[in-house]
Specification:
2 copies of one chain form a homodimer. Chain A is α/β, with parallel strands linked by helices and 302 residues long. Chain A folds into 2 domains: 93 residues, CofD-like domain (Helicase, Ruva Protein, domain 3, Orthogonal Bundle), CATH 1.10.8.240; 138 residues, Rossmann fold, CATH 3.40.50. Chain A is built from 13 helices and 13 strands. The radius of gyration of chain A is 19 Å and the shape is globular.
Chain lengths: 302, 302
């Protein structure tokens, strides 16, 4: 989604606020999976086959980590590992995650601004039948098979959004909630004190993009979380999720043509449905979706 | 050298005390080049072409580190990097270097005991015409081109040898000073408070092996350091170095047949010359040198 807007070039000044509640520490390294996926994608380095990690990756370090008895279910390729080594070293030297992320993006030639939602730690925990799990334990190690019964975001009450995030939202001309999981990807960002207020105060149109197409999540457990956590389903469920949790915040919800049947239910939730080609298979798809959102929001990019 | 003794199998209970004064911190990682070279060699993982690092190595992380603007003159391969990541994580978690080294060796199937000389930091600095340099800056980045005018070992006065090292020396039946650089590899170990006393107190024969063959160091700057720091040269210079700095400590000095001319000068320094095939090109050479030393020391392995 971010890539789609980046493809519009100078027509858009793109700032991405990234979720850090699924960050983790592994082998003593600070790993920021959401930030990295965006960074690698915008740098043209993403692995198209996996949706995470770096393309042309090698796995020598992982084989060695395994020999040392380290847990390797969170697969770190050699190129990716270098990112975590550098991030960790700079954080330990006293730099803030915002500054480190900015340096890494600059080094990789990313033109957009990528901002961690916070420089303070927030960690998502998922309650399952087996108890509370760290997010990546639930998501990667157990492949989000477990039913998510409850979520909590450790640290969310004391974490502050950064000045850069608040300023970017306050001055935005269009705010898009990406077709990410509204519970575990969008939720922590909106859960930080001051974020919803900054969005509302900006006066910018707020367009959410449904991660549900044809009733199912394009990837990940968003559809199952909708059922287990909201007792709801489909893109209509996404609309009701945003409308109930953040009243008045989201003006439009982009839903795929395959979900046309949800149109009236979205409207009934108080959100304008925006029919859009939401499945992004290639850069042309990504760009088209960005264009549709931009046009619907009044063509005022920012 | 250590590998030669390891090849003798059950006939020898091998303990290696490794120099840690050339350890360094790079990319926030604790790197122990001397320990790692021994560990990789005894694990059968050493790179035969370089004399450092791991065989079948890949270099993806290094390329990425370079993109991030990190200094990459100290070349870290992907497999090697995993060692440093794990070591650093375990040290930060509170483990001592001795324990971490032991775990890593166990994981790699190293049968010998590899002991860091100390769990406390000691750092070698080399004074050159350009001033004081960190050891690896002098050794690797500047390829030991500079004349070494003076050495110092920061931390040596407060660092203590570990209990394990002192106990191993006290109970040894044979102590061999490897054909390493007597200034920067052997020097820091012997410079720790209590080490020389523990060696002398053990009553074990002490055999040093000259790193000089045919008047020149087999590798590294030992020959040039002999001239610039001791105003001496050759294997005779090595004998005088040990005899003057550690009076009465070294009983025998193994020198290569190519240095037969140095035999009487070694004897004049109060050390018995031991003619030995000191150039180790393959495992047969390594084993033969170990056999010669073992036989000369009275055949009492330990």
């Amino acid at each position: 989604m971010a890539h789609g807007f980046a493809l519009l070039g100078d027509r858009v000044q793109l700032t991405i606020v990234g979720n850090t509640a699924d960050d983790l520490e592994l082998h003593g390294l600070h790993i920021s999976p959401d930030l990295d996926t965006v960074m690698y994608t915008l740098a043209g380095l993403a692995n198209p086959d996996t949706g995470w990690g770096v393309r042309d990756e090698t796995w020598s370090a992982r084989a060695t980590l395994e020999r040392y008895g380290e847990a390797t279910w969170f697969a770190l390729g050699d190129r990716d590992l270098a990112t975590h080594v550098v991030r960790t070293a700079r954080l330990r030297a006293g730099a803030r995650l915002t500054a480190v992320t900015s340096q890494l993006c600059l080094s990789l030639g990313v033109a957009a601004r990528l901002l961690p939602m916070s420089d303070d730690p927030v960690r998502t925990k998922v309650r399952t039948a087996d108890g509370w799990l760290d997010f990546q334990d639930y998501f990667v190690r157990r492949r989000h098979r477990d039913e998510a019964l409850e979520l909590r975001f450790d640290g969310i009450d004391s974490a502050r959004p950064t000045r850069a995030v608040v300023d970017a939202l306050a001055s935005a001309q269009l705010i898009v909630l990406a077709p990410s999981n509204p519970f575990v990807s969008i939720g922590p960002i909106l859960g930080l004190a001051g974020i919803v207020g900054a969005i509302a105060g900006s006066g910018a149109p707020v367009v959410a993009v449904s991660p549900i197409v044809g009733g199912a999540a394009l990837r990940g457990p968003a559809d199952r979380m909708l059922r287990s956590l909201d007792a709801d389903a489909g893109s209509a469920g996404i609309a009701r999720h945003y409308a109930q949790r953040y009243p008045g915040l989201v003006r439009q919800l982009a839903i795929d043509d395959a979900d046309a049947a949800d149109e009236s239910a979205v409207r009934a939730a108080g959100i304008q449905p925006l029919m859009a080609p939401a499945v992004m298979r290639d850069d042309a798809d990504r760009r088209r979706l960005a264009e549709v959102i931009l046009a619907a929001a009044g063509g005022r990019p920012g």
